[in-house]
Specification:
The complex is a heterodimer of chains A (190) and B (208). By secondary structure, chain A is an alpha+beta fold. Chain A folds into two domains: 8-48, no CATH class; 55-189. Helix content of chain A is 22%, strand content 36%. Chain A is built from three helices and eleven strands. Chain A has helices at residues 8-23, 32-48, 55-63; strands at residues 70-72, 74-81, 91-97, 102-110, 114-122, 128-133, 143-148, 154-161, 164-170, 182-184, 188-189. In chain A, strands 1, 6, 7, 9, 10 and 11 form a six-stranded mixed sheet that branches. The radius of gyration of chain A is 29 Å and the shape is elongated. The model of chain A is unreliable at 1-21 (pLDDT under 50). By secondary structure, chain B is mostly helical. Chain B has one domain (20-200). Chain B has ten helices and no strands. Chain B has helices at residues 25-37, 44-61, 66-82, 93-113, 116-120, 131-134, 139-148, 153-163, 170-176, 190-200. The chains are: A alpha+beta (190), B mainly alpha (208).
Chain lengths: 190, 208
């Protein structure tokens, strides 16, 4: 139908390049309007869904480790028991998992603005458990509590005050830990 | 050596300017990483403060709840500390962090899908708050949000992360997100192009 002279390839080329600017605006260079769109979107997200104000503090707290050769235990599950209006005792159960060890802790609210931690490690073995609690203010030093697990893998921390905390599980000083290094959890809010 | 010429003091939430003020950031972050490698762990503080908000948005864009996102950000930094000496080039720190945050977020998602008990407890992703109630910054934001919701989910995820990324880091983050080379600064990319076309066609939207 098209009897126009000229090489067909050339015509095809011309048609394609004429169509390009509208067909592929995504290949155009980014400009001030694009930056304005991205800035507006950032403003929206900053307002709608800002990170928790203490996010960086939580990260810095959990990174303040003496030993960097650690294994990370990831949060697996957190459940709340007895949180009904009539309940007098509120218990949170948190499970952390790593390749070699599962850590489960129940956090019970006690009188006097304190909490008790009942913990359990599996597979059960004698290990040293450290509970680091952040100082109440930036000038107050972090406090570490230490306990050892019993032969069923259980451990208890009593009279712990509220705040940011982290669990660390160390091999016992006298060895026998079958190559297990220190295991750390992300910070948890008590 | 002055590592942080524009460090702000005494402000609550650190909002890092998106513009050229951060042009030297890739170099500063590389310096933080190198100092941490040589044993000065406090040098990471600066990186943690500046980059954690972006990582949080990366985790949130993968559908995590606010609490899970905060956990994933911590796990990501713990992972970095463990692998300080594995990162090939300090210049790739941001890309590395974004990749690990995404991987850790997927891990959480996978686990939650396998855990019906969690859904029974109603611990699903926070309901998205109504924009009108929370945002009073003007009509153009409302119009933008309206059109933004019409994009595909993958475009929304991508644009959210890019919007929260500072310009000097575009290239590194685009690479971490496996976007086609050059698809955000120098060129616009498909998703931004779509959104821009809708906005430009809407007379109630303005760039300024």
């Amino acid at each position: 139908m098209n009897d126009m002279p000229g090489p067909p390839e050339r015509r095809y080329d011309k048609g394609l390049s004429a169509a390009l600017p509208s067909a592929a605006p995504e290949l155009e260079e980014i400009d001030d309007i694009d930056f304005a769109i991205l800035d507006q979107l950032r403003t929206i997200y900053d307002v709608l869904d800002p990170p928790p104000p203490d996010l960086a503090d939580r990260v810095r707290f959990c990174l303040a480790l003496d030993n960097l050769n650690v294994e990370i235990s990831r949060l697996q599950r957190e459940t709340l028991v007895g949180s009904g209006a009539r309940s007098t005792e509120r218990t949170r159960t948190i499970t952390f998992d790593s390749t070699n060890l599962t850590i489960m802790v129940s956090i019970v609210e006690m009188a006097g603005d304190e909490v008790r931690l009942d913990g359990w490690l599996a597979p059960a073995r004698p290990l040293r458990v450290e509970l680091r609690v952040a100082g109440a203010s930036p000038n107050v030093a972090d406090v570490s509590h230490f306990v050892e697990t019993d032969d069923t893998g259980r451990f208890v921390f009593c009279g712990v005050r509220h705040g940011l905390a982290q669990l660390l599980v160390h091999p016992l000083a006298d060895g026998m830990a079958e190559g297990l290094g220190t295991i750390v959890t992300p910070s948890l809010m008590l | 050596m002055n590592l942080s010429p524009e460090t702000k003091r005494g402000t609550g939430i650190d909002t890092v300017p998106a513009g050229p003020a951060n042009a030297d950031r890739p170099a500063r972050m590389a310096m933080c990483l190198e100092r941490a490698r040589s044993g000065d762990m406090a040098a990471l503080d600066q990186a943690v403060r500046e980059l954690s908000p972006l990582l949080w948005h990366v985790a949130r864009s993968q559908g995590l709840s606010a609490e899970d996102a905060a956990d994933v950000v911590q796990t990501t930094w713990l992972e970095l500390v463990r692998q300080l000496n594995v990162i090939r080039s300090p210049q790739t720190l941001i890309a590395w962090l974004v990749r690990v945050t995404r991987r850790e977020s997927w891990r959480v998602n996978t686990r939650q899908h396998r855990d019906p008990a969690r859904e029974a407890l109603g611990e699903t992703v926070d309901p998205w708050p109504e924009l009108e109630e929370r945002l009073e910054t003007g009509e153009r934001h409302r119009v933008l949000w309206h059109h933004f919701q019409r994009l595909s989910e993958s475009c929304r995820v991508l644009l959210r992360i890019i919007a929260l990324t500072d310009r000097p880091d575009y290239e590194a983050v685009a690479k971490a997100l496996k976007m086609p080379r050059g698809s955000i600064g120098p060129t616009r990319g498909r998703c931004l192009s779509k959104l821009r076309a809708m906005l430009v066609a809407d007379s109630t939207w303005s760039a300024r």
